[in-house]
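Appendix C: a fully annotated inverse folding record. The material below is reproduced so that readers can follow the format used throughout the book. The structure is listed first as tokens, followed by the designed sequence.
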């Protein structure tokens, strides 16, 4: 409450009381300090914030892929698991899953990059121009997909405008590729082009890597030029031929 006295009057009255010997400030009315208030002071309610809406949990596509791939006990089950996998953007732009072609259980397994337009249409890997060249290359060393070669790709869906697959797309599809190799049980892997080298060996540089045996997924692996590259650079077919002979020697030596 505001005092009715102005400052100077109040100050003069206080000085006068101190002069008279007042030492404590005492009110006019005595205060019964033992008397309890009628009601206990109310504890302040902690303000309860409404619960924030639950954030959707972030899915780790690689973990989902690993678990789906591991549960597949056969190639058919693996194909079904890949068809059910919804975390790769490429699936939305593709007509269908391109799983494999050739002879499961063959000694040679070829891993290409990703389906192109023809493969997307037919649902089989390497059926376009690059695929026809691949068949001729294989025939030159007495291999044939209908008898002794099994073929798949790193990516089972066609990338839009045949763009290079992104590292995260390769990463999330790799567990399926690893399981694919384990279930197909080849003796050797042929990896065609840089994307396949990246996915299988974790390195690029096909010009340096080609024709040299490496080891991955517990198997001998030989990188080769991709047939689509050979269509653009026919002068490189000489090296491709030498790599095919390297493969032939290996297969005959066993
Ligand atoms: N190129 C590939 O790498 N794979 C195919 O299936 C077709 C073209």
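Designed amino acids, in order:
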């Amino acid at each position: 409450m505001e005092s009715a006295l102005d400052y100077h009057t109040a100050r003069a009255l206080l000085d006068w009381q101190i002069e008279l010997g007042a030492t404590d400030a005492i009110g006019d009315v005595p205060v019964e300090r033992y008397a309890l208030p009628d009601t206990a002071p109310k504890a302040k309610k902690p303000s309860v914030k409404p619960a924030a809406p639950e954030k959707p949990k972030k899915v780790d596509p690689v973990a989902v892929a690993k678990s789906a791939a591991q549960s597949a006990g056969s190639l058919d089950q693996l194909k079904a698991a890949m068809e059910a996998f919804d975390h790769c953007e490429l699936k939305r732009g593709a007509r269908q899953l391109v799983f494999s072609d050739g002879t499961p259980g063959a000694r040679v397994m070829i891993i290409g990059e990703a389906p192109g337009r023809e493969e997307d249409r037919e649902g089989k890997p390497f059926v376009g121009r690059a695929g026809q060249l691949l068949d001729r290359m294989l025939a030159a060393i007495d291999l044939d997909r209908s008898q002794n070669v099994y073929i798949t790709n790193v990516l089972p869906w066609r990338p839009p405008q045949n763009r290079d697959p992104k590292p995260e797309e390769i990463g999330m599809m790799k567990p399926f590729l690893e399981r694919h190799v384990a279930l197909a049980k080849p003796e050797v892997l042929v990896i065609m082009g840089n994307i396949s080298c990246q996915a299988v060996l974790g390195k690029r540089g096909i010009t340096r890597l080609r024709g040299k045996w490496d080891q991955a997924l517990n198997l001998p692996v030989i990188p080769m030029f991709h047939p689509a590259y050979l269509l653009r650079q026919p002068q490189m077919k000489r090296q491709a031929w030498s790599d095919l002979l390297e493969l032939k020697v290996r297969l005959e030596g066993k």
